[in-house]
UniProtKB/TrEMBL annotation:
Its main location: membrane. The keyword Transmembrane applies. It is a multi-pass membrane protein. It comes from Ridgeia piscesae (Tubeworm). This is Uncharacterized protein. PROSITE patterns: NA_NEUROTRAN_SYMP_3. It comes from the Eukaryota. Pfam families: SNF (PF00209).
Length: 486
C-alpha cells in the first residue's frame, strides 16, 4: 500500500488475477442473461443469511456481547439534531436499496404483466432494513467482546469504513472451532454478497444497450460477444484499483458514486413520473396491473414528500460537503476534482442524451411535445390492451390519425427504442414486443419512460398518447408497473 493516490505504483498481479476470476464468474452467470442469473441468485441470496445466523449464535455466547447489544440498541436522541446524520441516512438508504441505480428496474422488467410490483417493492425495502438490523446484532456482539477483552468502552472499538467487516467478523470466527474452515465460509459469503450486487448492476448496463440496439444485439452470438467485450472493458477499468495505491482510488469512487448521482436520478424519476407523465395516468396504469389504484398515501409520497426530501438532502449534502479521507490521508485537490467528475459524469450523460434526442428527432421540438408520450405507448400484448379503452387499438388508431401519424410510426422523443416494436400496424392491430430472453413476442413489455438514457421507472408497457387524446374514463384506465419510491 502506497502513501497516497500520487503514488499508485505497479499492479498487484495476485489481486489482478482475483479480479479477472471474479469477472469470469460474472460472465458465466450472465452469459445467457436473466435465465442463468435466476438460478445463481438462490445461492447468493440465501447463503449470507446462514452465515450471519451462525456468527450471531457464536457472537452472542462471547463475554461482553450483551454490552455491545445494549450499545447498539440504546438510542442517542441528541444526534437527531445533527443535520449530517439525516443527510447521511438518506444517502445511505438509496445506496443500500440500490434505488435509482437501474438494477432493480432491469430485474423487475422481466416480471409478468400483472405482477404485484407494489408488494414486491415493500418486501424488498422491509427485508433490506431488517437485514441491516440483523447484521448489526452480529457486529455489536463481537464489538462488545472486543471491548471486554481490551477493557475499554464499546464506543472506543467501534469504527466504520470498509475494514469493519474484515476486523469484526474474523474476530468472531477466530473464537469458533476449526476457525480456518469458518474463515473460508465467511469469505465465500462476502464474495456472494459482492456478486449478488454486481449481477444486477452489470445486467442493467447490458439490458440498456440491448434495448437501445435490438437489431444488433438480439442474436445469441452477438449477445455473447457483446457481453464478453463489456466485461473485459470493466475488468480493465478495475485494474487501477489493484495497484499499490488502488485502495485510495477505490475509496474515492465509493465516496463519489453513492451520493449525488443517486439522489439526482431519484429526483428525475419523481418529476418524470408524477409531473411530466402525470400521476393520474401513472396511477391508472398501476391499477391495471394490481386491480386497484394506489391510495392517497402513495400519491402524497410520490408527488410531494419524495421530491422534497430528495431536494433537501441534496442541499444539505452541498452545504455539509467535506472532502473524502481515508484514515489520516487527505485527498489532494486534483483527486477531489476527479471525484466530482465521477459524480457529474452519469448526470451529464442523462442531460446529454436528452439534448441529443431533442435535436435529432424532427429538429428542435417544443418542450411540451418532447415530453409527451408517443403513439404506440401501451401494453405489448393485445389481450392487455383490450382491458382498457385508453390502450385499445381503436384509441391507438384515433391518436395516430389525430397526431398525423396514421402509419403508426411515431417519432422518438427520448424514450426507449422498444416503443418502435410496439406501434400499431396499418390494420390497427398492435405488434407485440420481442422478449429479450427468448426472441419471441412477449407479454411482458419492460419499456420505460426515459429522460435521456436513464430508466426512470419500471414501466413494463408504454403509454399511448397525451391526455387530450385519451378515451379512457376513471373506470377504464390502464396501468403501468413501476419501481416504488420508498
Amino acid at each position: 500500500m502506497s502513501s497516497g493516490m500520487e503514488e499508485m505504483g505497479a499492479v498487484n498481479w495476485k489481486l489482478a488475477l482475483c479480479l479477472l476470476i471474479a469477472w469470469l464468474i460474472i460472465f458465466v452467470c450472465l452469459i445467457r442473461g436473466i435465465q442463468s442469473l435466476g438460478k445463481v441468485v438462490y445461492f447468493t441470496a440465501i447463503f449470507p443469511y446462514i452465515m450471519l445466523t451462525i456468527l450471531l449464535l457464536r457472537g452472542a455466547s462471547l463475554p461482553g456481547a450483551i454490552d455491545g447489544i445494549i450499545f447498539y440498541l440504546k438510542p442517542d436522541f441528541s444526534r437527531l439534531g445533527d443535520s449530517r446524520v439525516w443527510s447521511d441516512a438518506a444517502t445511505q438508504i438509496f445506496y443500500s436499496l440500490s434505488a435509482c441505480s437501474g438494477g432493480l428496474i432491469a430485474m423487475a422488467s422481466y416480471n409478468k404483466f400483472d405482477n404485484n410490483c407494489l408488494k414486491d417493492s415493500l418486501i424488498v425495502a422491509l427485508i433490506n432494513c431488517a437485514t441491516s438490523i440483523y447484521a448489526g446484532f452480529v457486529i455489536f456482539c463481537v464489538l462488545g467482546f472486543m471491548a471486554y477483552e481490551k477493557g475499554v468502552s464499546v464506543a472506543e472499538v467501534a469504527a466504520g469504513g470498509p475494514g469493519l467487516a474484515f476486523v469484526v467478523y474474523p474476530e468472531a470466527l477466530s473464537r469458533m472451532p476449526v476457525p480456518q474452515l469458518w474463515a473460508i465460509f465467511f469469505f465465500i459469503m462476502m464474495a456472494t454478497l459482492g456478486f449478488g450486487s454486481q449481477f444486477s448492476i452489470v445486467e442493467c448496463v447490458l439490458s440498456a444497450f440491448t434495448d437501445e440496439f435490438p437489431n444488433v444485439l438480439r442474436g445469441k452470438r452477438e449477445s455473447i460477444i457483446f457481453r464478453s467485450l463489456v466485461m473485459f472493458a470493466t475488468f480493465l477499468l478495475g485494474l487501477p484499483m489493484v495497484t499499490k495505491g488502488g485502495i485510495y482510488l477505490l475509496n474515492l469512487v465509493d465516496y463519489s458514486v453513492s451520493g449525488f448521482p443517486l439522489l439526482f436520478v431519484g429526483l428525475l424519476e419523481c418529476v418524470a413520473l408524477n409531473w411530466i407523465y402525470g400521476y393520474d395516468k401513472f396511477a391508472d396504469d398501476i391499477s391495471l396491473m394490481l386491480g386497484h389504484a394506489p391510495n392517497n398515501y402513495w400519491k402524497i409520497c410520490w408527488k410531494f414528500v419524495s421530491p422534497i426530501v430528495i431536494i433537501v438532502t441534496i442541499i444539505f449534502n452541498i452545504i455539509l460537503y467535506t472532502p473524502p479521507t481515508l484514515g489520516d490521508y487527505h485527498y489532494s485537490t486534483s483527486a477531489q476534482v476527479l471525484g466530482w467528475f465521477i459524480q457529474l459524469f452519469p448526470m451529464s450523460l442523462m442531460v446529454g442524451m436528452f439534448l441529443y434526442h431533442y435535436c435529432k428527432d424532427g429538429g428542435f421540438q417544443l418542450m411540451v411535445t418532447l415530453m409527451r408520450e408517443k403513439p404506440g405507448w401501451g401494453p405489448a400484448h393485445p389481450s392487455d390492451r383490450s382491458r382498457s379503452r385508453r390502450y385499445s387499438d381503436a384509441a391507438l388508431k384515433r391518436a395516430a390519425s389525430t397526431s398525423g401519424l396514421a402509419n403508426g410510426k411515431p417519432h422518438v422523443y427520448g424514450s426507449s427504442v422498444r416503443l418502435l416494436n410496439n406501434t400499431p400496424s396499418a390494420s390497427g392491430s398492435a405488434t407485440p414486443i420481442v422478449d429479450r430472453r427468448t426472441g419471441t413476442p412477449s407479454r411482458n413489455n419492460s419499456t420505460v419512460f426515459m429522460l435521456g438514457n436513464e430508466l426512470s421507472a419500471n414501466v413494463r408497457y408504454p403509454a399511448v398518447y397525451s391526455s387530450k387524446h385519451s378515451l379512457s374514463s376513471s373506470k377504464h384506465s390502464v396501468a403501468t408497473g413501476s419501481e416504488t419510491c420508498v
